Amino acid sequence: MDYFKQILRFAIPYKKYAILNIVFNIFYALFSALAFVAFIPMLDVLFNEKKTVVETKPTYEGLMSVGSYIEDSLSYHMNTLAETDKMGALLLAISLIISLFFLKNICNYFAMYFITFLRNGVLKDLRNAIYNKITNLPLAFFSEKRKGDTIARISNDVQEIQSSFLSILELIVREPLTILFTIILMFKISTQLTLFVFIFLPISGFIISRIGKSLKKKSDRVQKEQGQFLSIVEETLGGLKVIKGFTGEQTFQNKFEESTSRFYRFSNKLLNRQNLASPTSEFLGIAVIGIILWFGGKMVLVDEVLKGSEFLAYLGLAYNILTPAKAISKASYSVKKGNAAAERVLEILNTASPLEDAPNAKEKTDFRSNISIENISFKYEDELVLKNFSLQIPKGKSVALVGQSGSGKSTIANLVTRFYDVNDGQISIDSEDIKGLKKKSLRQLMGLVTQDSILFNDTIKNNIKLGKEDATDDEILDALKIANAWEFVKTLPKGIDTNIGDSGNKLSGGQKQRLSIARAVLKNPPIMILDEATSALDTESERLVQDALERMMQNRTSIVIAHRLSTIQNADQIIVMHKGEIAESGTHTELLAKNGVYRKLVEMQRLES
C-alpha cells in the first residue's frame, strides 16, 4: 500500500469524480441490502404470515428513529392492504423489490460512470509524468536501462496500476459498505443467528488471505520478463539489417523464445494462484450458508423464534455478503499485483536527476565573449576519460578536436551541452558556470549535428522545425538551401511535407545528414557543435555536407569533432587529444610544422585514402 499512497496524488485533480463515485456507491450498498429485506413482506403475503400488526399509523419522530418509522409504515400499509386485497399487497411488495433493484443498478451505473473519468485521468497523468521524467533524466540513466523495459513500464505497468486503482476504491468504499449495511440488517432480523455466523467468517478470511501472499513476487517477475522481451523486439527492429547481414535470425529467435517461455511459466503461476481465489472464496461462502441453514432452520422449525419469511430473507442477505467478499478478495490480490507495477513505475518517477536546475539557476539569452573549459576531469564509470583538460574558445572562432577513438573528443561535446556534469573543474560561458544556468536556456544557445542523423517518423518540415516551432515555410526553405538539402527535397512528392519514415530511413545517409544540418541552421544558435558530422558519408555526400557546414559556421562559434582531418583544415585552432589530455594544439599549418602527432594522423589518413 505504500506505493499506492504515492500513486494517490495523481487522483487529486479528479477528486470530484471520486466523491461522486463514493456517494453513488453508498446508495448502491444501501439499496443492495434493502432489496433483500423487501422480500419479507412479499413472503409474508405468500405464506399467509403476518408480522406484529401495527394497528395505528406510525408518526415520524426524528432522524434517529427513521428506520423503525419506515419499517412500521410498511408493515401498517401491507397488513392493512393484505386484509382486503392479498394480490394488491403482493403487487405492492413486488413493486417495492423491483424499485429497489432498479435504484441499486442505477447507482451502480453512475458509480462506474464517474470512476471511469478518475481511472483514465490517473492513467493519462501517470503516463505524462513518466514521459516527462524520461525526457528530463540524464543520458546516463538510460545507458543502464533497456528501452523495452522502459516501454513496458509506461504501457503495461501503468495499465496494471489503473486496474488496481479501481479495485482499491471498491475495496475501500462499495464492497465494505455493502457488507456493513447487510450485517446491520442481519442483526435486526436475528442477533443470535448473526453472532453464530460471525464465528466462521474470520476462518474463511484467514484461508483466503493466505492464498495471495506470494502474488506480488510472482507479478513482479511477470512484469520484468515482459520488459525483457519488449527490449529484444526493440533491439531486433533497430538492428534488423545487421541481424540479417550476419544471418543471426535464429540467434535472436532463440533469445526471444527463451524470454517468452519464461513469461509463459511466470504468467501461469501467477494466474493459477489468482484464479484460486474465486472458487476458494465461493466454496467457503457456501459452507457458511450451509451452517446458517442448519442453525437458522433449527430456530424456525424447533425453537420457533424466527419466522420462515425472515429466515429466507436472512439467507438472501447472507449470500449478499458473498459477492462483495469475493470482490474484496480479488481486489486485494489485484492490489498485490498492482503493487509490483507501482514499484516499477515509481522507480522512474522517484529517480532524482543529478542534472536538475539549481533553485537559483539563471536564464541566459545571449552569448557575448567565450566558452571557458578549466581543468576538467570526467569519468563515465571508473576510468577517467578527461584529465585536467583546459580550453578557451573565443566567440566567433572555430575549434576542432581530433584524435584517436576513445581520446575524449565527444565527451567534450556532452559536457559543454551539459548532458553530463564534470567530476572536477568548471565549464563557463561568458564567465558564468553552466551549472548555474537553466539547462533549457543553455541548450537554446547551441546547435548540435551528430554523426548519427537522428530524425523522426514525421514530415521534413516538422523535423526541421524542432528547434524553432514558429518557423515559417520561407525560413525552412532558406535553411534547406544553406544545408544543400533543397536540391533533393524539391524533387520529393510532397516537398517539405513528405514523411521520411522511421528514423528517416526513406532517405540516404547524406540526405539525412543535410536535414540535420538544416535543423541546426533554422535554430540559428550562436554556438554550433559538430560531432563527426561527415565521418559516415561517402565522398560526394561528404563534399555537399562539408560545403553546408562551412556555410553554417560562418560568423559562428563552433566546436568541431572530426575523424576526417581534411574537413577541419580551416579551423582557427586544432586540438589534438590523446587519452583525455591535449597532445598538441595550433592551426593546421602550425601542427604540420611541428612534425608531431597531428602530422602522423594526417599521413595515416592519406595512406588509407
What does this structure look like?
- With 609 residues, this protein is an alpha/beta fold.
- It has 2 domains: 2-349, ABC transporter type 1, transmembrane domain (ABC transporter transmembrane region fold, Up-down Bundle); 370-608, Rossmann fold (3-Layer(aba) Sandwich).
- 62% of the residues lie in helices and 10% in strands.
- The chain has a 6-stranded mixed beta sheet, sandwiched between helices. A 4-stranded antiparallel beta sheet has the order 2-1-4-5, with helices on one face.
- Helix 21 links the parallel strand 7 (527-531) and strand 8.
- The longest helix is centred in the first third of the chain and has 51 residues, at 86-136.
- The radius of gyration is 37 Å and the shape is elongated.
- The two termini are 65 Å apart.
- InterPro entries: AAA+_ATPase (IPR003593), ABC1_TM_dom (IPR011527), ABC1_TM_sf (IPR036640), ABC_transporter-like_ATP-bd (IPR003439), ABC_transporter-like_CS (IPR017871), P-loop_NTPase (IPR027417), Type_1_exporter (IPR039421).
- Pfam families: ABC_membrane, ABC_tran.
- Keywords: ATP-binding, Membrane, Nucleotide-binding, Transmembrane, Transmembrane helix.
- It is found in: Cell membrane.
- The chain crosses the membrane at residues 20-43, 89-118, 165-187, 193-211, 276-296.
